[in-house]
Amino acid sequence: MKKAIVAVTNDLTTDQRVHRTCMALSKAGYETLLVGRQRKNSLPLASRPYSMHRMKLSFDKGPMFYANYNLCLFFLLMFRRAELIVSNDTDTIAGCYTAWKLKRIFACKVKLLHDCHEYFRGVPELVGRKLTTRVWKTIEDFTFRKPDAVIAVNHSIASLYQEEYGVPVTVIRNVPFRQQTQQPADKSKFGIEPGQKVILYQGAVNVGRGLEEAIQAMKFLRTDAKLIIAGTGDVFDTIRQFASDQKVGARVVFLGQLPFGELPPITMIADLGLSIEKDVSLNYHFSLPNKFMDYIQAGVPVLISPFPEMKAVLDKYFIGETIENHDPQHLASRIDAMLMNTERMELYKQNLQLAAEELCWENEEKILLDVLKQLNAS
After folding, report:
1. What's CA 46's distance to the chain center, in Å?
2. Fold identical between 2-175+361-377 and 187-358?
3. Which of 252, 265, 309, 357 gives 288 a disulfide partner, CB atoms 3.0 to 4.6 angstroms apart?
4. Cα 240–19–361 angle (5° rounding)?
């Protein structure tokens, strides 16, 4: 049986994109191994229909982490048979590319597929860090034209890389599986009282996500509602302390890190889903976030930043509204206007049914399977 090794730098707990990729690889006839890293606070992994391995590293962040990760990844790849290596984002490409190149020198029949989850040099953490950005660009310049195939999560990111490197990039959007019928979570477990509205943010709790302003907006909200923040990230503790400092702790619920399999029932209890990233980087500007697509699958109307990829979906299906700025009072007024307009919210929910049928992995997976078929044939 053909073998595939998929590499990411996270701890495999919440990454839905790579899970879907691994499932598609299994469907294409690959015995798949997903490789990530083990962190001190990593949650146990539930059983999945493919193998997983988390590497224990000596460093947790910074340049030494990336060097440590790619070196360990290189040796893992060199001593395991694989007909396909899948690198995810620029932070895994060094180890994957080097092992792939050496294996080919030794006459091993192996293909390299590179998956761009984001425009890597456009992440907010690199804004203003010219030296670090130059290092990542050097890595991309050396490797990006070489893989047997390149895919990306949306048209904007694919276009950026195609223009820069002149290679074809296939778009495979970051959409979830079609949600199966299931019961919503019990609202009372999160302190939600009968008749109280639920505003949801799910995903990474990082800089530039608009969370501080969303928390402040709770002070100006006329609707009886609670804000649920499901996820963790670099500023999780800071954001939680900020909610306490703003005296709205009773109206904000922090769920922390959750395995992606536990999210859908929670998403289903929301009356409104937020994806209000700030325009602080190219990566945010051209993003099509997991949470945005998860809201659609759960039938939850959305309030979003007017970024091109998200807004194109919103305009096509008419499933929510956009914000004009991140002023907390403006956010509160937009949230109130949506939650208080019962007729409009019902229209959004009707439109969400069509959007969910079309924007699902069962449709998008066909493109990935075709890419894999072409790799096998070449």
Report:
1. 19
2. yes
3. 309
4. 100
Task: Identify the CATH assignment for 2-175+361-377 out of 3.30.365.10, 3.40.50.2000, 3.20.20.70, 2.60.120.260.
Answer: 3.40.50.2000
What strands lie across the sheet with 302-304, from one edge to the other?
252-256, 225-230, 197-202, 272-275, 302-304, 320-322
DSSP 121-159: GGSGGGTT-HHHHHHHHHHHHHHTT-SSEEEESSHHHHH
Q: Where are the domains of the chain?
A: 2-175+361-377, 187-358
Both tokens of residue 32?
């798949």
pLDDT in the model for residue 335: 98
Q: CB under 8 Å to 3, separation ≥6 — which residues?
A: 30, 31, 32, 33, 80, 81, 82, 83, 84
Contacts (Cβ under 8 Å, ≥6 apart) of 347? 318
- pLDDT, tens digit (0-9, with 9 covering 90-100), for 40-75: 989 899 899 999 999 999 999 999 999 999 999 999
| Residue 102 three-state SS | helix
Q: What is the pLDDT of residues 222-243, one digit of tens each?
A: 999 999 999 999 899 999 999 9
Name the class of domain 187-358.
alpha beta
Q: Which helix (H) or strand (E) holds 111?
A: strand 111-116
Output the average pLDDT for the chain: 95
pLDDT given for residue 182 in this prediction:
79
Q: How much is the pTM?
A: 0.90
